[in-house]
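User: Some background: our group keeps a shared notebook of sequences we're curious about, and every so often someone picks one and asks for a predicted structure to add to the entry. Today it's my turn. The entry only has the sequence so far, pasted here. Could you supply the structure so I can complete it?
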Amino acid sequence: MSDKFHDECGVVGVYGHLDAANLAYLGLYALQHRGQESAGIVASNNGEMHLEVGMGLVADVFSDTRLKKLPGNIAIGHNRYSTTGVSGIKNAQPCLIDYAGGTMALGHNGNLVNATEIRKELGAAGAIFQSANDSEVIVHLMAQSQCNLFVDRAVAALSQVKGAYSIVLMSENELIAARDPQGFRPLCLGKLEGAYVVASESCVMDLVEAEFIREIEPGELILINQSGVKSFFPFPKTPTKQCVFEHIYFSRPDSNLFGRSVYSVRMLMGRALAIEKPVDADVVVPVPDSGVISAMGYSEEAGIPFQMGLIRNHYVGRTFIEPQSQIRDFGVKIKLNAVKPVIEGKRVIIIDDSIVRGTTSKKIVKMLREVGAREVHVRISSPPTTHSCFYGIDTPDKNELIASSMDVEQTCKYLGADSLHYISLEKMLGIFGEQKGDFCAACFDGDYPVDITGLDESAKQLGLF
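Assistant: Of course. Here's the predicted structure to add to the notebook entry:
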């Protein structure tokens, strides 16, 4: 039913708070949008580490009883999203293992492009893998390291992997957070009553009432222990390539990341759309929820009224039982419904963040026509998506991306719209000013900043093992 990209997961870590697991639990609530398949928390209590993990939403996995099993002042948490075929409790995170140096746990957001190669080498050397996710190779590399210190094991392991990672690691008495040298995925640091919090997005700090200190920088590794916070830059410096889709779609609008307010950036994207391709119309309507803020920006710039002409059902689960009788466009209608008084007889501009396969957009256009729209003009606040991502985003096969096989005119005809315009890549990146070169836009231009040689470019991002 989904016709959107999905981020793989969100991570949170807490050091030095008596209610570390409870704070991690709240953090996972704030990051629920980053992964809805599984949730887990590991906590350390006087050197003993305990894991609670399960399939489903945070509210489904954690009860008061389960949280009471997680005492201690250090904790990490993880929300996961995965593609069909690799779903299951064995792939849920955090990972918790015993090894020669003690016990450690890991939570990872991203994707390692050389994981298959490393996995084969480790397997040939006798390593036994418990899951099908790429994150586990980091655990094995750390366990095999000859270094004595936990932080040195982490550096040794992360120096061997390539790709995207925003990661939290914990031992019995230390917490580590790190971002890959390109900084694909976000990670930030906060402070609460002498305790420290790390999380994928700053909205976590707002919820737990922690002070936002700063973002963890690309290529930075921070160690948190009883001595405080120490910062390291142990990896070779490389150009920053942060994921621009974090601002387009993935991150919550109330977060700040990569030095910018997500809300403000989406407003500017909407304004840029109105300037780049204006059209006479009566009403601007967003595809909720991700198109709302860009639609507000478009409306303000164009001077055309903003209306919620599509209403979203927020209580649709991951699966539903389709009726035996044939109801047209059932998959879209269970999620969205048009408001006839807003649409009927109007020239409508519909705003969305992206078009992936185009199937949902086509059904939305049809829905608007059926309730009486005179014209339907589609405006997209990202460029045409023509390539798959290999850095932590679940994308369809390249040949399933409508923009990889159809130009704008052909896509417009397929959607049944009166006009279609995507924001240009130049215009979108221009919103970031001097930072525009700091972003990865490989899904739009095919310019992959980390070599993906050996990977099948048409493969689904998580179909690794």
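Suggested note for the entry: The first strand starts at residue 6 and ends at 7. The chain has two domains: 6-241, 264-314+327-441.
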